[in-house]
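Fill-in record for 2-hydroxymuconic semialdehyde dehydrogenase.
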Amino acid sequence: MSTQFFGHIIDNEEVESISGERFDVWNPWTQEVFAQAAEGGAEDAERAIASARKAFDEGPWPRMTHPERAAAIHKLADLMEERADELATLDSTNMAKPFAQAKHDVGRSVANFRFFADHQRDHTGEVYPMPSGHHTYSEFGPAGVVAAISPWNFPLMMATWKIAPAIAWGNTCIIKPSEDTPASVTLLGRLAVEAGFPPGVLNVLNGHGAPAGSTLTADDRVDRVTFTGSSVTGKAVMASASTHLAPVSLELGGKGANIVFDDADMDNAVYWAVEAIFRNSGQICLAGSRLYVQSGIYDEFMERFVAAAEALTIGDPFDPEVAFSSLASKKHFDKVSGYLEDVEEQGGTVLTGGVDEEGRWLVRPTILTDLPLDSRQYCEEIFGPVCVVNRFETEAEAIHLANDTRYGLNAMLFTENLSRAHRVSSHLRAGTVWVNCFFIRDLRTPFGGVGDSGVGREGGNFSREFFTEPKAVVMQI
Ligand code: NAD
């Protein structure tokens, strides 16, 4: 029996859908429904857009000074810190994310708000006195209404990565969280009301991709569409936004290469290889799902990598000892386990892992080798705890293998040779390269992907350029 309800938050009111329809919200660890959420229809999306539009056209938010907006956003961040356990509990319950990881995500979500609150205050424009005697300056005014659509793998963190720069730069926003994970984002919307945000600045629209998300992207009252999700949906979002020429920012799928050279610090490389593919049960767009190990250390590395994967404590996400839990939904469990059905048939070998035998929606940390380079396990984004390993001989071979994919979100490399670190980084076709680490971010730097991994970059000034209408003013003096 469900006990909680997550409504839409429109105009600072938490409301049911106009149709009264709701959908079930699951706890994938217990395999029970723990809540219900409002099922957004086209008319609810229209309502949210009308609210955001009015708040932008007539409300105080876009007209506030930069420090005023910074103060309002820091207040929301303060409330999130006070309620961090509650936010993390919702993500852990809703998608079986180990609680310590969910707490870490809340910290990063708070940092998203604080960073963009300060960034918009401190980067308001540039001034250039011209040698011709003119004086020119740039202005970064808000773009308007932003539709933000987020996935279920980092329910709170991915949503805040979009909301924070959007509202910081004076826009009003409608966030549509994934239908699989509406809980933490709805609480965030409640906190924005508590923080005193004017009505319509942050609306939360719950519901499925269609009609809730697709109504947002198609509406010409929406000025920007920022989307994180799969490459297939990203293409549909871009097509829909193009009908009214709304600029899009797309952060899509990945098939990250992780290259370990013979001269790597072995302890560090094993630690990060495990983090890169098994953290969040592998449900990370940036996962190191293709691992390439140089032949000189292959046997030793693989022995240690397999042992470390098998040592992960699996179980209840609220058990503090647990580092690895079930997948986020039954639907996703079916997808990931489907990739393990024909591994041997394709000539592959399962070194460790496989589908849980106790009926949980869980795939154990899985390491595969010997798969052909055209197998679906090697080429496609599995988005689960499944690592496909290959051996390589030379640096050139590693670069070729790493780049031989339609994706290009990120790559990792492990080496103690500084020249090689720089050389290989510059040859990798990826939006982010991590050298001797993984998942560390500085919010000033660009974030995004190449090819099927996305369009555009966000972060620091890249977010400023996307979420504003930059203007040049030239004066003769
Ligand atoms: P998804 O594409 O199925 O859904 C993402 C969001 O889009 C959801 O909110 C969904 O309701 C909505 N949606 C679906 N159809 C829509 C439509 N026609 N119009 C508008 N909205 C629509 O993705 P998912 O399964 O939730 O997330 C997993 C994917 O996200 C993976 O491919 C992963 O790599 C990717 N991802 C990328 C990044 C990144 O930063 N590049 C980060 C996290 C996840």
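KEY FINDING: The mean pLDDT is 97.
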